Amino acid sequence: MTLDPVHFDGIAQLAGRISQRVDATDHDSFAETVFEEFLDPLMQDGRRVIEPLDEVQRRRVDTEDAALQEAPFSTQHGLDSGTINPTTFTNGLVLDVAQAAMASVPSDLELHRARSVVTTVHSNDATVDCGEDDWTMFDRGYSRGRIIQAPRVNRYEEAVVHALSLYLAEAKHAQMQSAVVDDLLILDGPIYPKGLLVWSDRHPELADLLVEEKLPRRVVAAYIDLVEEFAERGVPLIGFVKNSGSKAIIQAVREAERAPWVDDSAFFTRVLERTDDDGETVTGDLTYTNWFVSRGGVDQPMSTDGDALGIDRERDVEDYEVTFFCVFDPRKEQLYRIEAPAVFTRDEELREALTMQVLRDVAHEKGPPMAVAKADELARISREEKAALGRAIEEQLDAERDRSYDEERWGLVT
Helix H segments across 236-312? Predict the structure, then answer.
């Protein structure tokens, strides 16, 4: 314990002084104004960056009623990918390892056993080339692994190996297992690799990778192929985003008005949260929005006026646009963003079925859908496993991990 009571109270009092200088009483009314008047459509630089698929509206459903309704899709599959986190070694290599897994409801133990593992390696030594063209099978053929060589960069090596491992493992595992999905596939996260697409806004060197290097585009192409395959089969594909960092709405609003929210999630939380006369959150209903088309920020490359990084698309470009709606669960005060390619949500009946499936699952699970939670559990690599894998990789590479003082101090490396 490093804080004495007097220190604790002093810190709390500082926060109290901050709160006296922040007036949030007008945030609710402004959120109402933005939602009802700005989003049909929301313009930025002459473009429609947000546009409703139907009318702008908020809806609510009794949580118990939603949990007890029959599932619109009799089976659901979830997909997730987890990594050991980027690691730098004393021989100059930087690598990350990702494993992707698919789960099903009802359960399929053989499906749950399968993995796609991608190890991405970065080296500034021009003589080093660790990439492999083919997958190697293991675990009696249930799983497969592959090594890829990351494009060379002068900075952001860890971000590069992380994004390439994570998204390539996820997309390729989804393609490998796609035939088992009959009704609905739910990605744990967005429908496109936004952690990679955001490179265009982070640094010129990263932006150049998206334009000049084949490997990042191959990763994005894998997601485009996934959308095309599921659209051809008539099986919907959605993404369940638990922590959306999108700022497309507030950035557009700020060009005309003062927007007090940090990101779009904070705005939608303000719009959807309901309170009683005492200011307490009303917890009996899930609240949710209509579906919107999103063409701003990292969604722009897949919009009708985006070029998808120059990747060929077989369908009408409108089919690939990102559409989404938001649902707020007051029991845990959590906002979720659910995405889907427009090819699935333009149909009103299918759009409503997808909405009701998500609401049922969130109400029943008090969190993400069971298929997503199962996939997350399968793909997650625990802290202990990360440490053990780190030691095993050290032995294989005959090199040690670079250890910082903070890692040793806080026990992040064992």
Answer: 248-254, 264-272
- Counting every residue, how long is the chain? 414
Question: DSSP letter string over 105-154?
Answer: ES--HHHHH-EEEEEEEE-S-TT-----SS-EEETTTTEEEEEEEPPP-S
* 279-320 pLDDT per residue, tens: 888 999 999 999 999 999 999 999 999 999 999 999 999 999
CA angle 69, 351, 190 (to 5 degrees): 100
Type of residue numbered 25: T
* Backbone dihedral angles phi then psi of residue 93, each to the nearest 5 degrees: -80, 145
**How far apart, in whole angstroms, are the C-alpha atoms of residue 172 and residue 188?**
15
Give dist(CA 47, CA 43) in Å, integer: 5
- On whether the CB atoms of residues 192 and 322 are closer than 8 A, the answer is yes
Contacts of 351 (CB under 8 A, 6+ apart): 53, 291, 344, 345
User: In angstroms, rounded to a whole number, what is the distance separating the alpha carbons of residues 356 and 364?
Assistant: 12
Mean pLDDT of the chain: 91
The SS3 of residue 278 is coil
For helices 204-212 and 157-177, give the axis angle rounded to 10 degrees: 40
Beta bridge partners of 52: 292
Total Cβ atoms within 10 A of residue 306 = 14
